[in-house]
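Field reference: sequence -> structure
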Amino acid sequence: MKKLSMDELSRISVEDFKKQDKTGLILVLDNVRSLNNIGSIFRTADAFLLEGIYLCGITATPPHREIQKTALGATESVNWKHFNEAKDAIAELKSKGFQIISIEQVANPVLLNDFKPLPNLKYAIVLGNEVEGVNQEVIDQSDLCIEVPQYGTKHSLNVSVCAGIIVWDLFVKMRSI
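Structure field:
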């Protein structure tokens, strides 16, 4: 096997990215505090052609040097919008027909491996603060909560790692229906 050079990867331009059909997913970041996590989530959104990211509450917005460190330019390709409160972002998304899914540990969650997206639906995936998780008010507005099954001694994942797992799983499932 030969490792490919950057030129051989045939990456699309930002302009071409904007023209691509997008995966029917938007990420909602509910008070995510780490700028590195935010940048990493932008890169994930770019990799899987997400419609955008809604940055809510204390979640920092581009342009910011610390976000750029991990986003590596994805803030230019991925559409984003800021809301002072996540509940306002959720209201807008519901008015646009999105199903709201919070990623949180709750009583009676749907496990990620059991979730089956429906054809022709769009989903807004809410990811919460690194310590507090998704705000209860947002959970109350959600259509459902999904949990990533975990089997070790820890009961949480880094928010950007969790975003990567969720987005990849839904990307594959949505592309196959």
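Note: The domain at 25-175 is CATH 3.40.1280.10 (Alpha/beta knot).
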